Amino acid sequence: MGAERLSRNQNRNSDAPLILGLQPSALVDSVATVDLSLLHQISGERGGSIPVGIDELENILRVVKSNSHDTHSSMKTLAGGSVANTIRGLSNGFGISSGIIGAYGDDEQGQLFVNNMTFNGVNLSRLRKKKGHTAQCVCLVDDLGNRTMRPCLSNAVKVQPNELMKEDFKGSKWLVLRYAALNLEVIQAAILLAKQEGLLVSLDLASFEMVRNFKPQLLKLLESGNIDLCFANEDEAAELLRGEQNADPIAAVEFLAKYCQWAVVTLGPKGCVAKHGKEMIHVPAIGEAKATDATGAGDLFASGFLYGVIKGLSLEECCKVGACSGGSVIRSLGGEVTLENWQWMYKQMQIKGLPTPTDVCK
């Protein structure tokens, strides 16, 4: 298939990662702080995530770089993607053995992705190398810390449904997914194999545009009964219930809980609401009200929440750990938590009486 494994360890299932993330295309983020005047030059709504072609992506990068002399502008390039952010957080910040399934190109961006994830302790034995381009995304962050994302995925290499094997999932406990219409076939194939191997499945709803434009497919996925944990932010929750008489976050959690064991709606600075079984809870945010950059906030919230579930914590404690980890990433630019901000998170967890990771070597 023109793909090669990053590692050919035939005994990898004996030490299979506890949590696996499916990110069909490795992704490199270019994160830039910009002012509102620059955002007006970018097509599409602010605050969302709309796919663009390579020409438009390069044009956005040119516009950003041409404004880089402005004291309000700066750019950071790092391995990205929602699932990669969550998996990296679980591995580096929480000491949970984690791996990623996907493909990367034989280019500079692909090597950057590999280097970054390897440095953070992520198992890459299920990551395929292919000839071609690695996916890229421009994340534009305004003065309020809100991010506008423009991913370029159309010409990027990615893992195909028929390349997935039962062995990829054997021995793991969780599969972490992000909803994407372009990847629906590989998502469905991964869920089928994961369920055959007894894994629990976590799904993030990705963006309000994705929910709005591909709602029937999403509802079918939820109704399958194969999604055990679902994360949505406030905008995604509103889209999910658009047209309903009651479309508030609590109603969204109730809706998701009909299909999933755990349902979580994150509310930014207002915290989150979650439901598990008959228990419904609201937990406030932790940390500064003003975010430096909201990129990765939901992804790192998921890292903390999953850590809590794995450790057998209560629903309230899972939400609190998620609030701590989500609060840690918004303190600096990009979806990767710095050492200083991990230390901040551990301190917040200790203050709130939450069990901190004891096997994380810093």
TrEMBL record:
The keyword Transferase applies. Keywords: Kinase, Transferase. One of its GO terms (molecular function) is kinase activity. Belongs to the carbohydrate kinase PfkB family. This is Carbohydrate kinase PfkB domain-containing protein. The keyword Ribonucleoprotein does not apply. Residues 66-336 form the Carbohydrate kinase PfkB domain. It comes from Canavalia gladiata (Sword bean). It holds the Pfam family PfkB. It comes from the Eukaryota. InterPro entries: Carb_kinase_PfkB-like, PfkB_dom, Ribokinase-like.
